[in-house]
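Page header: ASSEMBLY MODEL / two components / 612 residues total.
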Amino acid sequence: MEMNALDVLNAMKNDEQPSTKRNEPEKEIPNNMTGDGKYKVLIENLAVAYNGKKAIKNINMKIPDKAVTALIGPSGCGKTTLLRTINRMHDLTKGAEVTGKIIIDGENVYDSYINPILQRRKIGMVFQKPNPFPTMSIWDNVAAGLKLNGVKDKSILNEIIEDSLKMAYLWDEVKDELKKPAVALSGGQQQRLCIARALAIQPEVLLMDEPASALDPIATQKIEQTIIELKKHYTIIIVTHNMQQALRVSDRTGFMYLGDLVEYDKTEKIFKNPEKELTANYVQGRFG
Amino acid sequence: MSRDLLAKKRNFHWDSIFKITATCAGAFVLLIIVLIFGQLMSDSWLIWEKEGLAFVTGDRWNPVEGREAFGALPYIAGTLVTSLIALCIAVPLSIGIAMFLSEIAPTRIREPISFVVELLAAVPSIIYGLWGLFTFRIVFKDWFESPTHEALGEHIFLFRDAPFGLDILTASVVLAIMIIPTISAVSREILLAVPAIQREAAYMLGATKWEVFRMSVLPYAKSGLIGASILGLGRAVGETMAVTMLIGNAVGPKAFPFGFFQQGNSLASIIANEFNEASPVSMYFPALIGLGLILLFVSLGINVCAHLIIRRVTNAHEGGIKGF
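Prediction written out in full:
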């Protein structure tokens, strides 16, 4: 049953973009890695400038598969910019210029043959504030991405929607009122709905930009539980202002400052025994 | 400085002066509408006394003393028909312009074009009227009205009348051109006000620009766009000069708009055409003022409908967007 729905989507993805993957050897990660030990996203010499002003400079990062990677740092350090380069959201920002490579499964998403619209279908994103489509019902919100991708069969839709809502831990709260407007949900529920909407298109990577910053502690806790569950299946990159949150949910943490990736290591190491003094000062709350 | 000194420095008089001036300014609006309404009522009193509701439902128009007959229905219809035709032409075009300006145009082009659109809104209606009278109606008659009449005139009654250039359709088209700037300028603002995060939600799912517009921008902006259209309709209903010059100014039963190429008249245009002939002591003058009163009610009615429509659209979903 579940395979059926997944097959449809996977077949769709393969149809749309010819897989001209490079023959890059799968890199095995030494035993200090989490997840199944592979890197999902490789960021190489990435720099972003807005109208000539550098926002991030020459970042290199290897992001592990099926794990949560957190990006922390003070406001304006470039962490959200970095996140948005991964699904080419910066194509929409006027004056933004991206150089370098972001390689997902061996394909550079900035290669000229990559269509950013198709690329975004492979990457889910959850934003700072919950942004469900306000005139749509809960069901329609989750179905939106599937319909865009040409899934019309009602039973397949229902199945994927149920799976996605279950994965976002919202199903039990909304299963009897899927036709209710999405905006009738609470803020925390709306954010989990947005997670479900992103999961419905079966993304390979899930990007989260301070997903709990607009939520109260209880809703935040639910989102964090959801994130921890989701990493079994997805590669998650989360930007957060909340260091405790990074500590609670992530396996690896990158600390950014003024457009540089100052330090990137296992979360435990970053928080307990960082290499750089700047990192230590930040995680101990001496500035930020 | 002691605490007492600080407290003494405060002057609360300005607050009450502020309250009083603001309240006066607010009351001014009410005063104006009451005065206009009262004046129209008292000046048109005679015609209501004589004709009663038949003034609204009648279609004869004869100002000759002794044989006087006044009925407003053809002009009410003329006003509504020309305005609605204008709206049907103007709304799709205006939303197209607004879409281009907000979604597609690069910043370099967006600014100049937005400026031109606003400039068009500032062109006085007499200019549109002159252009319509001396240029547009001739071109329009030769290139659209005559061929359409020849092709469809025998089959569809709407195209039955032999086109002359000064008719319901010409007036409506020029009216449409006149309200396009208003509708598109307001629509553009409404589309630009859709939060980026709404657009990004759709982009994130892999939507194209059109899909983003359809699934994210349009539903969010819907009530605002309806509001913009009603604003245009309001302008069309009251528009006088250009319509007077182009509508053909028929009076009586034959002014009732039954075809596109027929001469008609609107409430505003018949007042503009005839007020200088009307003697204040006859029934003619009260009749024209009565038309003015009806026009005021038509405008009010449109505004009320607009509010109801917008409320229905915004409340279609519990807790929906309170946009406009």
